[in-house]
């Protein structure tokens, strides 16, 4: 039975401290701020990031060099037989593809790069799933295949407090942003598969947005996720938020529990890579189907 190391990146929201507690490695995502590189949770805290983002600094996302990623793999392989690497969605960054090319060229049979097209709390869940699969004795290739098989069995919905960052990133036109600001819109986006996409752009307030997100997740749980095995009780529920104020997220949790009584709802900060494109004050709801191999 191979000894398998689990590695992810900080887009999962797993901190360096949590990684140590879980016995895994987390590659920090780099950010360029006014031309200087910072590493998430290493030389850049959540508080520092949002201070820069909401100020006048020029903040943009980057990706870890493949040389750095390889060095983390090399270190892990001194202790383990195989590595499973779970990077952010290939649809949102080139880092996954770069890792796949490197693994196939230099680490064949040793490093398995998971292209599960997830980010933030659903990526986090897959990292946790991978840990449990490794404990059960699954090989690196088996874990990769299971996670990729399950990649679309999740949903994330995000409502925004501002359109400024979508305009800044070129995702909407200045005219659309101006109109949205005038109408005080709180649009809802979704992340599933290859990109951050529109879900409900003409929503008018945060309270209604939360109801829409709950309804959308409830429909998925009772729809395509139920169709997988006939069950609705084996789904993880999560809330995520951008900014440093956790209070709105905790209030959202209580609203979700009214619809899903008795269910646990975990709360985590949104990935900084996502937050960089949507700004502060965002709220998200995510669902992930439990992996069948871990229910046995």
Automatic annotation (TrEMBL):
InterPro entries: DegV (IPR003797), DegV_C (IPR043168), DegV_domain_contain (IPR050270). Keywords: Lipid-binding. The keyword Amino-acid biosynthesis does not apply. It holds the Pfam family DegV. One of its GO terms (molecular function) is lipid binding. It comes from the Bacteria. This is DegV family protein with EDD domain. It comes from Anaeroplasma bactoclasticum.
